[in-house]
Amino acid sequence: MKNHPEHLKTFYALFQRARLKITPARVRILEVLHHAHAPLSIQQISAELETGEVDIVTIYRTISALQKINAVKQTHLNAKERAYELAGEHHHHLVCTSCNAVEDITLNDQFEQYQKIITKKSGFKIMDHSLEFFGLCAPCQKN
Amino acid sequence: MKNHPEHLKTFYALFQRARLKITPARVRILEVLHHAHAPLSIQQISAELETGEVDIVTIYRTISALQKINAVKQTHLNAKERAYELAGEHHHHLVCTSCNAVEDITLNDQFEQYQKIITKKSGFKIMDHSLEFFGLCAPCQKN
DNA sequence: AACCTACTTGCAAACAATTTGCATTTGTGT
DNA sequence: ACACAAATGCAAATTGTTTGCAAGTAGGTT
Lengths: 143, 143
Hints:
Two copies of one chain form a homodimer. Chain A is α+β, with helices and mostly antiparallel strands and 143 residues long. The first copy, chain A, is 41% helix and 20% strand. Chain A contains six helices and five strands, in the order ααααββββαβα. In chain A, the strands form two sheets. Chain A has a three-stranded mixed sheet with strand order 4-3-5. In chain A, α3 packs across α4. The A-B interface holds A 74, 76, 79, 82, 92, 94, 96-97, 103, 105, 108, 110-111, 113-115, 117-118, 121-138, 141 and B 74, 76, 79, 82, 92, 94, 96-97, 103, 105, 108, 110-111, 113-115, 117-118, 121-138, 141. The structure holds a DNA duplex (30 and 30 nucleotides). Chains A, B: It comes from Candidatus Magasanikbacteria bacterium GW2011_GWC2_45_8. Chains A, B: This is Transcriptional regulator (FurR family) protein.
């Protein structure tokens, strides 16, 4: 284990536990996700990287691996694409249906309440969830 | 406009407003969605119909048209597929990650509260949302 | 520091999902 | 019954995702 970016160290631990190697491609992909302000699709991750830096097949495989070790979470921002964000950065999303901007929102007590009610009513053991709001962002409401 | 199934009449109105024709294929697709107990993917809709009854391309186009006039809503129950349900039957979903069962849950005040808070905080004009919980259903918790 | 081996990668190609073009058919207002 | 725009099926194009395999590499061991 060489000199890898410091701020990703929590992920390196996950890697080691799963016997996954810390490769340049994986570090770059983690960095891209880390710097993102919203979940990214495979295509978007690919676009963030230098052309030819990482093959898109490798991105697919890396994301898949990261999901298995719970290092990334999948969300669904629109009809077309699946998008991914680093675990531990879980939040809900506001998706503007006009300009396609995506804004993160942090969950609060009110939502926890709702989840508790559902749990009680359903007998379901809830492990995770995905919530997206669709509408118009402030700027787009003026047009 | 001939003798079409009575219970779908609210949709016929939407069709006419949008100058969409009421065809056998569309009626059948609406029926399938109407009888479904959970959102269905394109493939599932296709499977519900008699073989060769409606071309899968037509299902794609029909669903797309129905979405445009807000007659169906899209949800994302799992990583692979998009699923659809009739509008007006909007609810949240409990997805069992073990047996893949999907259970509908009806939203309640608690959730409305949460949405209100988000609206106030963000300045977003929320038109719609999508919420899925993932976890283990009661039976699967025992295994 | 060189070595070994299992894990990774890129590339090509298979596969699957979704969309498009076009000739033909059909619903619906007149 | 007629006329025309809209809808359908089929084939083919496009796009998204997965798989097979030979070559390359991380990271523990000597």
